[in-house]
Give the backbone structure.
Amino acid sequence: MISDPHTSVAAQPSLTIDGQSATFTQGETIYQIASRLQKNIPTLCYDDRLQAFGSCRLCIVEIEGMRNPVASCTTEARDGMIIQTAPPKIEQMRKTLLELVASENRQVNIDPLRGLASQELSTLVNKYGARNGRFAGKTSGTSNEQDANPFILRDYDQCISCYRCVRVCAEQEGDYAISIANRGFQTQITTEFNNDLRDSDCTFCGQCVQTCPTGALADKKALRSQPLPEPIKKTRTVCPYCAVGCSIDLMTKGDKIVGAQPALDGPANKGALCIKGQFTYDFIQHEDRLKKPLIKQPDGSFKEVEWDEALTKAAQGFAKARQKHGRRSIYGIASGRAPHEAAYSMQKFIRASFGTHHIDNCSRA
């Protein structure tokens, strides 16, 4: 079939942002297009993994021909729009909004160990110089200091009602463990019947902690390391607990691991973790962890030995079992607490040495 050269193809819609022209696809929001163009539009209620909510209004932009500014995160782009992201009038509005938000919080500067997004409010307040306290007065949110769960601090005096925690629990995890109660200054993030998180549908995945922009929900375990003087360092690695391969950032102070955070750009998890990947890292430096191999004695006790002796003893045991019962009598189980390199070596050892596939991982189930 020969195409008609006179047939016209509809042009892709385009708009102009801060003098820069850009094409877009139907359904894209102004915020998404601006982010693609590396325009730094501030926001506190936005999380790229969640449906746009438009509650904080910090992402407002000015559109030529429109009377009032619009929230860029919820406004779909239209062909021919001419947009200004940061004219003086909009920047002044943002400063005032930040002053209103910051006036409700007990403190603006909080420990970065509280969570991945915990510095968002303080960063914006510092950028706009919104620390004058002229809106100080009545506040909303009451901290739940009685919740005895071991993982999540519920410090709602820091809450700004962006609802990112509620939305990530519902939209990403499907748990619906937390929700919003009341209105106005009585607004409160809560659980069903205001119970402890342990008595709710919470799976302690930590998603609410990591999306909170103010540290109102925080990592209790990580905060225990506050007295350590060293700066925080992040190291990208892969969670060993199952075969999904979630990317995580281990947080260290000196030679001590003080926390774990999900990698938002992790190809397998996109910022999600389970309770194991999020909170079960303290075994690494636990005081009861074995530092030398043990060999069981005839009387049932265990004796500390050097590695050469332990490896020789283990090799003799494998050889004896193979000779007496055959190669299929040997079965390997790798630990979910070992690094991936150790898991690989374990399966290679079983398959190459004994010619079987009798190898598994304790965390597969």
In short: The CA atoms of residues 108 and 316 lie 62 Å apart. The mean pLDDT is 92.
